[in-house]
Specification:
The complex is a heterodimer of chains A (296) and B (200). Chain A is of the alpha/beta class and 296 residues long. Chain A is built from 13 helices and eight strands. The chains are: A alpha/beta (296), B alpha/beta (200).
Chain lengths: 296, 200
Amino acid sequence: MAEKKQDQLKLNKNLAQMLKGGVIMDVTTPEEAEIAQEAGAVAVMALERVPADIRRDGGVARMSDPKMIKGIQKAVTIPVMAKARIGHIVEARVLEALGIDYIDESEVLTPADDAYHINKWDFKVPFVCGARNLGEALRRIGEGASMIRTKGEAGTGNVVEAVRHMRQMMSEIRLLSNKPSEELMTYAKDICAPYDLVKFVAENKKLPVVNFAAGGVATPADAALMMTLGAEGVFVGSGIFKSSNPRKTARAIVLATAHYEDAKLVAEVSEDLGAPMRGIELSTLKEEEKLATRGW
Amino acid sequence: MSKNKNNVTIGILALQGSVTEHERALENIGVKTVRVLKPEHLEGINGIILPGGESTTLGKLLKLFGIFEPLREKIQNGLAVFGTCAGLILLAKEIEGEQPHLGVMDIRVRRNAYGRQLDSFECESVITEFSADPLELVFIRAPWIEKTFGNARVVAELDGHVIAARQNNMLVTSFHPELTEQSAVHEYFAKMCGERASRA
């Protein structure tokens, strides 16, 4: 027998690399999962309510019913992701036991711990986590996350926060990669990030894991915008199944993500999609209604 | 002498997946690459790599982007092709429990044969066809080749399962050479492209 090595973080990072250039779609039923797969989604996120509905309903948002997750796992052959509350170790263990392909430790659900995130090194299953800036991204990677996404502002259909977070991250990476080595320790201290990860970014001019866009992406042009700003793929939550034509919107977003540099094609696929999700202007949200401020 | 030792240009199917990793691997050995996103990008290349990614997604995107038919025709007419992991699945004539995608290579494939992500692994093995030195093999939710038939031949096995095969202009591996720093498999494929280019 060949001697098999399992450096789980490396393998999990590698798995995330296989999702690059793809679109990951929120789905709430096996039927929606099939529509997503048919449209060319690279993975689906199984959850009971899309962020727009979580926002509308209020109350505590928790991990989804395992039965519903299993139904979705059965419906598709692409990877299935599911969300656990920030810091909820047991929800994460339950999802791992279900054989889920990725856990999203997500600010879209109500945090279970107001000080600590899950120690993701304790798990074999890969984690994706949200981040607004480089420090936050490197803290999550330091805790064992193998994939990062911007937080954006989920369920608003407004891309402005995702843009802000992606710009922030890319600009910090550019800044850091020009720093001389003697400045790195102080910089690590300033952004509250592990030194070795700061050093990695300085040397490689990129995060050690893939970096996707999420939170407010509603149209094909939004997805292409996020790719233009440096995202390696896109999560679309409420944007697809809250639109008037989910099948067509899903396919259009997939096409626009792969061809983000081809404006003519983005124009073509954007034609006649019907009404996108309604959307919320961010200045009308109260500070406590913003999901992106969850997580530390 | 040109830096491009084989004087070939290799296309990389860039719809989704480990595209930049293959680009880097080829650039490291001085081979020119182009991204293939549209049917017209298939012109003027001496070979094409179908990267790792999600095979279900890639199969749908090939059709959605209008690349499916022209690509299949080119491969059948002798265009050199190298499929890694998902790319291997795209090329297979038979997939257990599923409909084939391009269906051009005489292999029967089992998807996720080693299990889910928890069963992904790395190991070292010598594959003499590629190199006398041991190669680092990375398997990510990998398929294996259940059997070869027709004109396909086994290039490598691991613990009794076929993990690499070749059939004339087609090369497949269930592992990901693009995720390592070793270039032996990419050099082998560049040579395949060069031989076919000089014959044409």
